[in-house]
Amino acid sequence: KKDILIMGMETSCDETAVSIIKNGTEILSNVVASQIESHKRFGGVVPEIASRHHVEQITLVMEEALKTAEVTYTDLDAIAVTEGPGLVGALLVGVNAAKAVSFAHGIPLVGVHHIAGHIYANQLVDNLEFPLLALVVSGGHTELVYMKEHGHFEVIGETRDDAAGEAYDKVARTLRLPYPGGPHIDRLAAEGEASIKLPRAWLEGSYDFSFSGLKSAVINTVHNAEQRGEVIKPEDLAASFQESVIDVLTTKTIQAVKEYKVKQVVLAGGVAANKGLRAALEEKFSRIKDVKLTIPPLSLCTDNAAMIGAAGTVFYKKGQRALLDLNGNPGLDI
Ligand code: KG4
Ligand code: ZN
């Protein structure tokens, strides 16, 4: 049987990324042009700057991905591109580049949901076994997604306010750490002690999450200490904040694993790069029999196109095709 070669493309936020994937599991190339340096001084992603950078980078990144993989457009079975959710201007750059190449070379086009991509990053490191539960934690999303089979996604819980990554970035800002703050908090947390009492939003009877109360508690703790002239160790605050986030994420995941009787749990999204979260899940799941835990390497947790290629291959095999009226959809549902 012939191999399936797919080009994955991702431009939903601040990474211009293109990858060539073989049979949905093997990475032939994975090129990521990060714009973080350009957004840092604004303390977050500036949409207009993101779109402009994508326009400048996209064709170069596409060429590099092909060259590294030693393939040409005529070798490709399909082009898979993130159609949403994300920043509309940023999405449109990837979608239009994908449509142009699809039209010019007669290559089938597949639209991919960004979160489906994050989940399918796990297929690049492990076999997926269903039913499966994905804990998706990124800058824009915090979700528990139940999958009874390939390409089937049921959101059983989601954040009611801030996403986990958003909370990390805001807490980092309060501690005057650079953007994106997640990795800095992670590093500080490892050096501190979780000695400061912070809330946990359990939202009993639901798999939903809430992180805005926790975020406000951190901000208040810092302000109150400043007013009283007290010194709080930033590493202790980071450790306390991180412990609260991890406590809620892992507890709810384990509850859902039991209720839905899943065979596998996969971790997905930028916050999946968090060392504390990875360690806590590994420790907890080492004691749960018959449930396999999969955690992608750091480079496949943050935004990349290999994950879009992996998800795109599944949708392509299911016969899903996008036409040339494919549009960027900032609010796309999974
Ligand atoms: O998935 P992603 O690359 O982009 C979105 O789709 O949102 O996630 C980015 C988010 C940022 O909020 C960043 O601070 C967070 O992931 N992040 C982390 C870590 N590495 C990245 N959060 C906590 N610990 C980390 N090590
Ligand atoms: Zn993402």
UniProtKB/TrEMBL annotation:
One of its GO terms (biological process) is tRNA threonylcarbamoyladenosine modification. Binds 1 Fe(2+) ion per subunit. SUPFAM superfamilies: Actin-like ATPase domain (SSF53067). It comes from the Bacteria. Its main location: cytoplasm. It is an enzyme of class 2 (transferase). Its cofactor is Fe(2+). Substrate binds at residues 136-140, 169, 182, 186, 274. Keywords: Acyltransferase, Cytoplasm, Iron, Metal-binding, Transferase, tRNA processing. Residues 26-309 form the Gcp-like domain. One of its GO terms (cellular component) is cytoplasm. It catalyses: L-threonylcarbamoyladenylate + adenosine(37) in tRNA = N(6)-L-threonylcarbamoyladenosine(37) in tRNA + AMP + H(+). It is found in: Cytoplasm. Its EC number is 2.3.1.234. The keyword Acyltransferase applies. The keyword Cytoplasm applies. Fe cation binds at residues 114, 118, 303. GO terms for molecular function: iron ion binding; tRNA N(6)-L-threonylcarbamoyladenine synthase activity. Required for the formation of a threonylcarbamoyl group on adenosine at position 37 (t(6)A37) in tRNAs that read codons beginning with adenine. Is involved in the transfer of the threonylcarbamoyl moiety of threonylcarbamoyl-AMP (TC-AMP) to the N6 group of A37, together with TsaE and TsaB. TsaD likely plays a direct catalytic role in this reaction. Belongs to the KAE1 / TsaD family. This is tRNA N6-adenosine threonylcarbamoyltransferase. It comes from Niallia taxi.
